[in-house]
Amino acid sequence: MIINKPDAPSTCTPSGAGAGLRLDINRVSHGFDLGGGLLPVLEQVSISVAPGEFIALLGPSGCGKSTLLRLVAGLENPLSGQLLEDGEPIRRPDPARVVVFQDPTLFPWRTVWQNVALGLQAQGLLNERGRRRVDGVLERVGLAQFAQAYPRQLSGGMAQRAALARALVNDPRLLILDEPLGKLDSLTRIRMQGELVGLWREKRYSVLMVTHDVEEALLMANRVVVFGPRPARILETIPVALPYPRRRNHPTLIALRTRALALLGAEAGA
Ligand code: ADP
Ligand code: MG
Question: Using CA atoms, how far apart are residues 165 and 229, in angstroms rounded to an integer?
Answer without folding.
Answer: 33
